[in-house]
Design a protein that fits this description.
globular
């Protein structure tokens, strides 16, 4: 008779340990992200103290230091936070929907759909360069996502994670080939596009922050609203249906969430690779698969990763502004190889 209370006490103890571990992870990564934010705003040709950073962050003062913080450095740090969090959450949602540990926004074709439109605007139709970059990204990324969703949804057998991933990979390869063809045909006009394609926040301005943040906030809120349905969907389609969930609607809303987050982030920062791929793996090692916890933590970890990558990129060459994608790619690939070797991932 004492085995039942003992089992209940063991479950309660395990739940408490998980909560403590999650709280510790949130505290540690939040502190890391805040430290990276302050460091990002402080570094540059002009040394700026902590209180000047605080004043320049909240009030546009008249001193040189406050103006530098508010006009130049603050938009860059904010854009790194927003885009890093966006790519990370989009990756977590994609890995859940496709049940694929290699899931990332690239699976849906959003990144390369946006890249095709950016390549066309840079080379073939330069008059499009005056259009808001976020709208161009939504146009290309959204069209690619709808094509992938249509192929996966209306093919024989209906929607499934495997079909969605296969359709996404196929469309991504087609779009990648199209971008390469455009660049080969218009080599003389491709320098600016190559810089954008690496991905980074080097040219951040307030107008980019203002253009992207409404869509990113909307994507973040939608992701949080989908946290419980994604937890149910992770149990399998049959179980989810048995619990009364409309799995088709959940998948469609998840794809809308990915388009919002990735489209807005790519439009202002370019396709920063690997953030959406590796951050969810890092987060799950600390807090498990509960999306109610994993999605908010992914925002924080993604923001920290892009912030520190941008800081490292600034120190690579003092004479040239390097995009942070140059730093994220090798770090991301190394971390992903490490994670793949250390743990067994079940799709």
């Amino acid at each position: 008779m004492s085995a039942v209370p003992a089992a209940g006490a063991g479950a309660a103890s395990a739940a408490l340990a998980r909560r403590i571990r999650a709280a510790a992870a949130f505290a540690a990564f939040t502190a890391l992200a805040l430290g990276g934010f302050v460091w990002s705003v402080s570094i540059g040709p002009e040394h700026i103290g902590f209180w000047t950073i605080v004043q320049g962050t909240f009030v546009q003062g008249h001193s040189t230091g406050q103006l530098i913080v508010h006009i130049i450095r603050l938009p860059r740090a904010l854009l790194a936070v927003l885009c890093g969090g966006a790519f990370a959450v989009a990756g977590a949602v994609m890995q859940s929907v496709t049940r694929n540990p290699l899931g990332a926004p690239e699976i849906l074709g959003v990144t390369w759909g946006a890249a095709v439109v950016a390549a066309i605007a840079t080379t073939i139709v330069p008059s499009l360069a005056g259009v808001n970059a976020v709208w161009l990204s939504f146009a290309g990324g959204g069209a690619a996502a709808l094509l992938v969703y249509g192929i996966a949804r209306y093919g024989r057998g209906g929607m499934s994670p495997a079909r969605l991933a296969l359709a996404g990979y196929t469309i991504t390869l087609v779009l990648w080939g199209l971008v390469q063809g455009i660049l080969i045909a218009f080599t003389q006009d491709s320098d600016k596009f190559f810089f954008w394609l690496v991905g980074g926040v080097t040219t951040a301005e307030w107008r980019q922050v203002h253009a992207a943040y409404p869509w990113l906030v909307g994507g973040f809120l939608l992701a949080l609203l989908l946290a419980r349905p994604l937890n149910v969907l992770a149990l399998g389609d049959d179980v989810a249906r048995g619990l009364g969930q409309n799995i088709g609607r959940t998948r469609f809303l998840a794809l809308v969430c990915v388009v919002l987050l990735t489209g807005a982030a790519v439009g202002v920062a370019g396709p920063i690779a690997f953030v959406g791929l590796i951050v969810p793996h890092i987060v799950r090692k600390f807090v498990g698969n509960n999306h109610l916890v994993a999605l908010p933590l992914s925002m924080i970890v993604g923001a920290a990763l892009v912030l520190y990558a941008d800081i490292v990129a600034r120190h690579l060459d003092s004479h040239v502004e390097m995009p942070c994608g140059v730093v994220v790619a090798p770090i991301g690939s190394a971390l992903f190889i490490y994670l793949a070797r250390r743990e067994k991932v079940v799709a």
